[in-house]
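Record Ribosome biogenesis protein NSA1, 446 aa.
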Amino acid sequence: MKLIIACEDTGAIKVINAVHGTDTSKPSTDDAPQTPVTITTHASENNTRKNKILQLVQSKKSGNIIATRLNGSVEVYDISKILKEEQQLNKETKKNDDDNNNNNNNNNDDDKSLVDLLPLIHEHKDIIPELTEKEGESFISALIDDNDRLIVTTNKGSVFIWSSEDEITQDPIKFILPLNENESIESFQIHPGKDNINYVAYGGKETDLRIVKLPSDINGKPEIVFKAKNVSNSRLELRVPIHIKKILFDKSSTPENFKLYTFTLWGDMRIYESKLGRKPRSSILVLPKKAPIINSIWLGNEFVVCDNTGIVVKVNPESGSQISKFKGQIGTTQALNNFNNSILATTGSDRYIRAYDNQTRECIVKVFVGTQSNAILIIQDNESLNNDGKRGKKISISGKYENNNSIDSKTEQENEKEESSDEEELWNKLESNITQRRKRRKITLV
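=>
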């Protein structure tokens, strides 16, 4: 598995290469040797925390990585060399391990060669002024629509559009989203479908949900087609605050009936359907104790929601109920990534990256990267699927091989039944032991 993360502390990019079953938090023993992990650092020159990466997105067409930075620049990195030279890198690392006397020289040579493996091929500087104040302008999203266009948005409502990542060096098409005075944006989302990519939704702190249609003409202005209303006042007749952290369109949404979800700082999920009115159809508390929602993404037909207390849960889109948990997180989980609806990758403040099997919720990769990260992408995983598209054997965290074909055939209900049957057997044994002891006691008393 190959993962790319953005280093929040240094502004660099790290590439992690690890096999399924890797867990660097556990010590290596003779019985369970630690699987090798390769971590390389790229784009570290002239980059610091002041111009750190804010978003990472992978092009659907070329596979290249697009990054937005705090200094107002947009960059494109070529990953073809990383994918092609995996075998060569493995040979080099083995040679370096064998030659202990020349470790320093070999490491320096490797660093020079590894930097070239993730070259910067396109860059557009100073799209927006460098962020120097809290109230300044910064990027909040970088998205690829279904027509392979790159759309970058700022908190002040500026939308920049490139037809492809190859044209990033050229000036983009720019639109300004309708905002009132003192309003800002924290979430931006594109409508799914190639015919509906001009419909976009946005919202933020005290900026309720709006959907606009971007004009096809460069000189046109975005037109508001839907403007949401806040929920009713509380039982104490107090106004409910608005703070949207994430917006997701439903897969069945159409311009005739927009259906989408917003996730708030107060742990709520609000469901909107434009045919049913401007107010949300329902507002559901999906996280306990109103924990602030940091991020949310689609994973198959469910949501994955994370907060700042280590909670990462799968949520039903209709009921808002928690389906299952991805355990092991500590602190704030800042970034989530969905790889082919089969693997969930997470990263955050605890300086670990984790990858989970979507079906079993097992942590298949856990690596300490030594830096806080706010963006993560899985760019390759050759162990997940066989040639026929089915899951094959892989290594679990415990180091044992297991066949996932049998795991996939079992549902969670069957597993729960097996656990309950084991518990019943245990209780039956305990009861039989108690009855035998009572009989013996009666015999001794007589």
